[in-house]
Amino acid sequence: MNRQTADHATLADKFNEDEPRVNWHDQTLWWVRAKRDRIAWTIPEWEQLRDTASSIKLNALGNLHDYLLQFEQQAQQNGAIVHWAADAAEHNRIVTEILQKHGVKRMVKSKSMLTEECHLNPHLEANGIEVIDTDLGERIVQLAKEPPSHIVLPCIHKKKEEIGELFHEHLGTPAGNADPQFLTAAARLHLRKEFLLADAAITGVNFAVAETGEMVVCTNEGNADMGAHLANVHIACMGIEKIIPQRKHLGVFLRLLARSATGQPITTYSSHFRKPREGQELHIVLVDNGRSRQLGREDFRNSLKCIRCGACMNTCPVYRRSGGHSYHNAVAGPIGAILAPNLDMKDYADLPFASTLCGSCSNVCPVKIDIHQQLYKWRQVLVKEGYTSTAKTAGMKVMTGVLSAPGVYKAAGKMGRWVMRAFPGMVNNRMNPWYKQREMPVPPAQSFSEWYKKNKKST
Amino acid sequence: MKVGLFIPCYIDQFYPQVGIATLQLLQKLGCEVEFPQGQTCCGQPMANSGYEHLTHQCNSLFIKNFADYDYIVGPSGSCVLHIKDHLHDPAAEPQAEKIRQRIYELTEFLTDVLKVTSLPARFPCKVGLHQSCHGQRGLGLAQMSELVAAPFSKPEQLLRMVEGVELVPLDRADECCGFGGTFCVAEEAVSVKMGKDRVADHVKHGAEVITGTDVSCLMHMEGILRRQHAGVKVMHIAEILNQYTDEQANS
Q1: Which of A145, A194, A337, B71 is the most core-located residue (most Cβ within 10 A)?
Q2: Are residues A202 and A98 part of one domain?
């Protein structure tokens, strides 16, 4: 995805130009949140499950070095070829080299947020390799030449009519047909052909088990399996934080993942990949890309517990009303806002401020990441590191000066209220973003402290 | 029991009636209340904007004003949460710690410290309760809908003691109103949209008055309601809990 210069507020402002669409987007995602609530309530030990998952991840992150080596050893014993990539560029180079070695010109890819983060698709295309995203939602945004707007529901920002038009243009479906079942069947036919033609398949990884060297990939469409089983080369790309210590821990994570993500008891497919089949090459690319750095930031370490369920996005009142693209990062929403500044503080300095700190995200999170507290902490870091406007800093200093001196504060308050009453136009104008769609509070003649001084004896 | 009354700056300046209601309510319930005149702001506007490092003077001032009280009580969940989470002073850390442990938002002070079981108040009206996020999720004033856990609500518990109050149900019991401090101007479009949606939920269910534990959220929703000429009023919960009964009014 291309870096954008516009910040979250500007992009959100644009998204809000079409209010009925904002309503639709909000209600669609709220429906997913409500579905998550209903299914969570069917598990009496839900909160205990979250605690357990959080503890397992804490252990995995605390011993990441050892678990990664154990995983590598087990995976190699299973016959996989393991690669290590320090950053996105190295990841892309490794994948390209594997594909070039096999003369691959056309390949399929199931959903992988990591490859989005690394901008793999444009890199491969620049090297003459055609990539077909096989997750239906991802294929839709790929046809639309857009990045995904949600990590679980990549095309949630698109209406079925828009998808009908896209399919008409690219897949030759009849114009004006927006029947979801019909369009899905058309996509199925189209993708079936791609699966058969592909020389290689890339999949993401949901969980990598250190104990066994196996990987678990969760999909609802079976597209990861279809790709990996048909192609002669399977490349699994994963961030190093996907490690879990033991296979039995899947019993915790698989119960939480789909329930948190979409309100389903489990994904339709939870596929275990352990060994390459006869004649197939299985590559596993372990990618750092800033994760070690984040691991070293004590305040933000827990963000690496994320299992990419998207529950924080569905519940986020800001995400629902600003859309995934307003976060201009592969991972949107609250979790994206605490992960992105680690990748680039300058480009993503706006994201931790795109929140009211309401805290809903932290409390739906199945691995209990303190997301809203990390948003607060990122704000402190970003200001200290100088990624904030000088006007804002100057304003904050003036404000601090006034609020640090009771006499100045009282005088300023009294004068401010008088100005508001005498010259309402001074504040009720277009320069004031509050006033654009809201009335200012009516300034009283007397502050509470003035009232108290006069009345305290009589109360 | 000596209670220090903490009236956040914007309540002091724009909503004196909320300070008055809080003071009268606490006195009615038998507390000895004082309002330290030297207080200004808790420092939250700076801290939430990423300038926590500028709040030292506000912190020292807060400690100077409130160190001597048995309890500190304020009609704002958000400001109280800020003090609880962030009040520090290397020069007066024991006092800062005492304040962090002894500061209460008004409704939790009533239910948990004073253990109020009845109130001499009457307010015949359809009321929508806005559960402000910092109070609810931060201070635990009410159970949050995200958790699989038994529901409770301290503000609701108190409103149910007021004769005549009819609480209206909401489609989204605890969604954020979009105020969010400087967010309300920095992210004006989303902030207003969130506020409009929150207000619409109350209006749809027939609320005549929207109440809550935070004036900041109420100020934001009031601004939207007034622009819409909606006719729905906004009142802080202290104002409702402090409403006199007919008997008191006549005496």
Answers
A1: A337
A2: yes
